[in-house]
Amino acid sequence: MSQTTTVALVQMTSGIAAQDNLAEIEARVVQARQAGASYVLTPEMSVVFAKDRAGLRAAAEPWAGNGAVKQLSEIARTSGIFLHVGSLAVALGDGRFANRSVLFDPRGEIVARYDKIHLFDADIDGSNAYRESATYAGGKTAVVADIVPFVLGASICYDLRFPALYRMLAGAGAQVIAVPSAFTVPTGQAHWHVLLRARAIETGCFILAAAQGGSHENGRSTYGHSLIVSPWGEVIAEADGAEPGLVIAALDLDAVAAARQRVPALANARDFSLAPGPSPFGNDLKTQAGN
């Protein structure tokens, strides 16, 4: 007999006021529960989507005694649902922040938390510099959680571009991987669907991608298109554009084993080394590794 479970993704246009965002999350969780969902995922930065570092400093609380976390715990408890908060900013002791995903069980207890590992540091066309590491401290640990009836792997947004993380999560038993995100419109149009489908195909996992969408109070615009991808790489549910709302689907968990049997890439993977030789960076590999 096939094992199925219903999940929901919340697509948001989060603003800079935490209480407004928390009220929306609560309303969407209630709606999802009424639709039969047992698990709900919100986007990256769903509690506060700050305008700048000063706004982040004013809004983000430390982990100990965090008021937003307490409210989210109560939402999960009163709804009797697994609530996976895609991420919120948590103030650290060194002036930086953690971009932290938090998973609550139906009792409101925290069963897993994950800090975004990969931070976006890049110069775009030599003029616009992005230095996420100046504001956030990257996580160092991959996370899986058995929430019954499936094992869940955690990731956040830019992590999507690093397939080794997803392969590790699948190797650790993940059947479903969460990708809460706030993709820009240009990168979303170019890469969102293809990257999510690729991660599903490579791992044989369901991919759940709850996204920010629309024009935000902080001046940013995000792509939306929250979607659910099957282990075979098929988009089985998707938000129509960038408007806030819910994406709900029933997952046939037997599809995970079926996809991995048809293409046993995880089982066939082998360790290997790289032969010494010229580096594309102009130095030999030994020198390159030492820099």
UniProtKB/TrEMBL annotation:
Keyword annotations: Hydrolase
Keyword Protease: no
UniProt cross-references to PROSITE patterns, sorted A to Z: CN_HYDROLASE (PS50263), UPF0012 (PS01227)
Keyword Cytoplasm applies: no
GO molecular function: hydrolase activity, acting on carbon-nitrogen (but not peptide) bonds, in linear amides
Chain coiled-coil ranges: none
One Pfam match: CN_hydrolase
Gene3D superfamilies the record matches: Carbon-nitrogen hydrolase (3.60.110.10)
Residue intervals of the CN hydrolase domain: 5-253
Similarity-based family: Belongs to the carbon-nitrogen hydrolase superfamily. NIT1/NIT2 family.
Protein name, entry field: Carbon-nitrogen hydrolase
